[in-house]
């Protein structure tokens, strides 16, 4: 995604300077890749598998066993490129999720215009419900404010935030209950659809997670046995259909856990 047209010229200049008589030797330093960072999620209920694009540049694709690009794309509940941030030149972009299947190949189903700034991290979410008539689904972009990473790493705690990607659910509050000391922590407060809470420090360990409406003590979504490693940052995302009561349905309410760092 990012090109370095001056790299060869710079390296030659360094080598020539080092060869001059009485020259001070200049050693090459580790190169920092400039740009923004973005990751992609397909949380659109009933949405087709997609490849993600920034303008007309394909950011994600899946390789098949034949060595060709798979027509499955990133399926519902999945993250592009395994949930890893992708480097991108800063600027204004139209981000899209485009159908990966042979039928309607490359048709944009989720489109959003945004600006990605240098040195910042972002997450793009397909969300809500896929409309089979218009072949569209909702989408939004959040800045992942990873300011903690500029501080010395504290391996005793993990930092966790909550993202709400369920279009038919009221604002939700995420709670994390330690399976060891059995205390419960509110993770960032109430979050509305398309919103994100702040990163909250939790002692490293294993937690049971549950999300509730702000005026209720009833768990609307729950997930047990989630591990948060010290020194890492995580996003817990709510996806699915809040009306589903089945515990096995693909589109049931679900709490997804993905590492940011």
What is the topology?
Elements: H1 7-19, E1 36-42, E2 50-54, E3 57-58, E4 78-79, E5 86-88, E6 91-99, E7 108-116, E8 121-131, E9 136-143, E10 157-164, E11 172-178, E12 184-191, E13 200-203, E14 205-213, E15 219-228, E16 233-239, E17 254-259
What would you note in describing this structure?
This protein folds into 2 domains: 33-144, Immunoglobulin-like (Sandwich), CATH 2.60.40; 148-261, Immunoglobulin-like. Helices cover 5% and strands 44% of the residues. The protein is built from 1 helix and 17 strands. The protein has one helix spanning 7-19; strands at residues 36-42, 50-54, 57-58, 78-79, 86-88, 91-99, 108-116, 121-131, 136-143, 157-164, 172-178, 184-191, 200-203, 205-213, 219-228, 233-239, 254-259. The strands form 4 sheets. Strands 1, 4, 5, 8 and 9 form a 5-stranded mixed sheet that branches. Strands 3-2-6-7 form a 4-stranded antiparallel sheet, with no helix packed on it. The chain has a 4-stranded mixed sheet with strand order 13-10-16-17, with no helix packed on it.
**What is the rounded distance between the termini?**
21 Å
List the uncertain runs: 1-31
As for the number of domains, it is 2
Arithmetic mean pLDDT: 87
Largest sheet features: 5 strands, mixed
- The coarse silhouette is globular
CATH class descriptor of the largest domain: Mainly Beta
Question: Any key phrases for this structure?
Answer:
44% strand; Immunoglobulin-like; single chain; 17 strands; 1 helix; globular; 5-stranded mixed beta sheet; 261 residues; 2 domains; 4-stranded antiparallel beta sheet
